[in-house]
Amino acid sequence: MAKVFLMIDGRQVESEPGKTILEICRDNGIDIPTMCHLDGLTDVGACRLCLVEVEGVSKLLPACTTRIQANQVIHTQTDKLKKYRRMITELFFAERNHICAVCVSNGHCELQELGYKVGMNHVHFHYLNQKCDLDASHPWYVMDHNRCILCTRCVRVCAEVEGAHHWNVMNRGVQARVISDFNTPWGESITCTSCSKCVEVCPTGALWSKQTLQGKMEKHPEKIAELMEKRKMSL
Amino acid sequence: MNRQDLQLIAEQTNIKHKQYKHKVCVCCGAGCIFSGSKKILQNLQDTVKAQGKKKDIEVVPTGCMGPCNEGPLIKMMPQNTIYQKVKNEMVPAILQSHIIENKPIEKWLLFKNSKQKPFINSLQAPFFKKQRKIVLKDCGDINPESIEDYIVSGGYKALERVLFEMSSEEVIAQIKQSRLRGRGGAGFPTGIKWETVNKYVADQKYVICNGDEGDPGAFMDRSVLEGNPHRVLEGMIIAGYATGASKGYVYIRGEYPLAIKRFELACQQARKSGLLGLNILGSTFHFEVNIRIGAGAYVCGEETALIASIEGKRGNPRPRPPFPAEVGLWGKPTLINNVETLACVASIITHGGEWYAQIGTPKSGGTKVFSLAGKINYSGLIEVPMGTSLREIVFNIGGGIPGGQKFKAAQTGGPSGGCIPAEHLDVKMDYENLVALGSIMGSGGLIVMDETSDMVDVARFFMEFCVDESCGKCVPCRVGTKVLYDILTKICQRQASMKDLEKLEELALFVKATSLCGLGMAAPNPLLSTLRYFKNEYLNYVNLQAALQPS
Ligand SMILES: Cc1cc2nc3c(=O)[nH]c(=O)nc-3n(C[C@H](O)[C@H](O)[C@H](O)COP(=O)(O)O)c2cc1C
Ligand code: SF4
Ligand code: SF4
Ligand code: FES
Questions:
Q1: Does A70 share its domain with A108?
Q2: Domain count along chain A
Q3: A168: chain B residues, CB-CB within 8 Å
Q4: How large is the ipTM?
Q5: Are residues A62 and A146 in the same domain?
């Protein structure tokens, strides 16, 4: 297939056509922070961390959902973008309760890592202090909405990979919540297969396995891409 | 039905109407129904019957006549005399004096109690004189529940012409020439959109008519759907022909039961008359229309969210590209246009694109419907040529500000728009000029504010709306609007510092730049525009807080 050439951050790169900006950046070792994106799942462009500047386009574009075009000139690390990534991260922290010291995911959390990566040393916005529920009705897993950042990875993995369609989202705006079935306790669900995929892909301490101590919840979201790769091969 | 039958219906209906000597139109637009016009309609019909004048006087329920504030309105034809605030007791007197004695009753004329001079022919009043009605042409004159009435006033003629005399490319050429731009808010050139959909090859394409109209205070699309549903339907069928789509969906919000009922009826009538369905008017073209009812979420007016909603999914927007023209409903190429946009189509085909283009400005052809509200003497529904000045709309058509107050600002574009201050009263209303002033045309809501309005509170009101209506998918809009709203509340409570004000502006620009869809991108507009023109009001709040602080 004919290759396309484009400029990213002042470097000329080449690729097959049809890839996303995020894919080609990762192929070339250019680091763009992401949160809602997970290899193996459909992209939704929701977290806005991966926004990049494309010359000639007035809007910022999400790298995860935007396909490359030949001769594009793309900037991924401008001061403006870095500032926006920090602001997004701060808003994540301001939205719900993320007290790392008492969290099972402390030290293995993608949100925490993101905070370090974008250089967040302070949350400049007031905390919304929402009091959210915690659902511990499932025999093995817990859903703590206080830690959920609404990335919808769990919703997508359950629908697209497991095929169970157990998770969904209800309400709008800051009231939005991930729900189990029609907002019934997880433990009573007949759609959940208890496969744990949602727990594995959850970037924060929102979904975790019971009897995990503080800081001991290690997850393996990369398994989803491996699984999808194997499925493709067996077809 | 075929082409000749259409002509026949027009002629027969015309003869039927001509049997009457007089016609009384009773406005049954939402505003007038609310002030009791249904009772007046019944009363008129009963009285005419009781007086044995059923053969002479035709009583017709119509769509919105415009000056909604003065309702219930009735219009006496052919003199075009409108009586305002009609009560049951007035009905016999009006019939006796106006019709039988041919003496209009001065004291009940439209605009009687205002500074403007009332006219026997109400259309002479400045409110109507400066308007140019294309979309609303028959609204207020014909019975929206009668397909014959629409046909007799020239309806479905454009469709006939398109089906038998024009290729899809020729239709698109006319629309392009007309310089019609999307009336749903963004103002995208309609002809180019049609051409794009036409270009894609697919086994199925769709046309969607966007009647979600979620802006607070806007009722243009509602009035068109309620007052002349066939006009929208005709536009849709023509759009289907031009783009190669054979299925259409009309998405109407559930809060508009009358619009839904009338559109449904229009579809039934059209189907029965062979204007919808297979082999329309005997041609080879097929088109079918379905109605979908929205549940009142503002974000479902956004095209990708609307498509998700029709598909039965949660109404969340998705990033574009791909645009619906390429990947739309069920993944198929889809044309999505606003109600008012589609309502322009038939006239453009009838009179030609050139005619339509000449009415507006070089960049946007035609007219725009506005709903006037707020601190203005005559609120209601108006239609003016693109490029009409704001001053003309507020002071001439709208009759100025009541109570001797001074004009302070006009808010356009609802929660996605901004405020235009007095120094820009002479702005010619079109897409580019409004954007340059930090507002947008939006769907046509126009709220007038006088000196008593608190602009910080206005910004806070619209931000609260966006907080409630954000779908919650993307972080900048979901959390950002809430934080902005909290800071605005803090300012209004005189608790904020200069630092908060700086943060407010920085965050507003961030939300605008990073949100996924138009809701989030435009949510900071009312805030940013009031900050631009009325910064002193923000500073007053902040400084007052500083003055109250113990040093
Ligand atoms: C939050 C939001 C709400 C919208 N609401 C409406 C609406 O109620 N009606 C409408 O026609 N367009 C609405 N739009 C614009 C549509 O996305 C789309 O641009 C329009 O229907 C296209 O038709 P047009 O080209 O005829 O304007 C909305 C857009 C956004 C971002
Ligand atoms: S529970 Fe976890 S995976 Fe699911 S939306 Fe919340 S943060 Fe994302
Ligand atoms: S901008 Fe607001 S409404 Fe639009 S996708 Fe983001 S959260 Fe939803
Ligand atoms: S990773 Fe692209 S928007 Fe979240």
A1: no
A2: 2
A3: 314
A4: 0.97
A5: no
Give how far Cα B447 sits from Cα of A129, A171, B41, B121, B497, Å: 35, 30, 31, 28, 30
Residues A131 and A205 in one domain: yes
Laid out side by side, the sheet with B288-294 consists of B288-294, B247-253, B206-211, B334-338
**Alpha carbon of residue A185 to chain centroid:** 24
Q: Where are the alpha helices (DSSP H) in B352-437?
A: 353-359, 390-391, 431-436
Peptide bond into A17 cis (omega under 30): no
**Token pair 């415009």: residue:** B66
Strands A167-170 and A177-180: antiparallel
Cβ proximity of A65 and A47 under 8 Å: no
What's the confidence (pLDDT) of residue B545?
62
Residue closest via CA to ligand 3's atom 8 equals: B471
Partners of B109 in the beta sheet? B83
Q: Is there an atom of ligand 3 within 6 Å of B339 CB?
A: no
Asked if B319 and B311 count as a contact pair (C-beta separation under 8 A), the reply is no
Task: Cite the DSSP H helix spans in A96-182.
Answer: 110-117, 153-156
Q: 0.90 cut: is pTM over it?
A: yes
- CA B27, CA B61: separation in Å to the nearest integer? 6
Q: What is the reported pLDDT for B546? A: 64
Evaluate if residue B548 carries a pLDDT over 80. no
**Confidence at B185, pLDDT banded by 50, 70, 90:** confident
**How far apart (Å, rounded) are the C-alpha atoms in residues A18 and A21?**
9
Interchain CB distance below 8 Å, B479 and A92: yes
Strand partners, B407: B450
Backbone angles phi, psi at B97, to 5 degrees: -75, -50
Domains of chain B: 3-129 (3.40.30.10), 147-357 (3.40.50.11540), 367-450 (3.10.20.600), 456-548 (1.20.1440.230)
Distance CA A149, CA A131 (A): 14
Strands (E), B190-230: 206-211
Domain that holds residue A29: 4-77
CB contact set of A10 (below 8 Å; sequence gap of 6+)? none
Asked if A143 and A180 count as a contact pair (C-beta separation under 8 A), the reply is yes
Rounded percentage of chain B residues whose pLDDT exceeds 90: 89
Kindly list the residues from chain B whose CB atom is less than 8 angstroms away from the CB atom of residue A172.
297, 299, 468-472
CA B79, CA B97: separation in Å to the nearest integer? 14
Rg value, chain A, Cα: 19
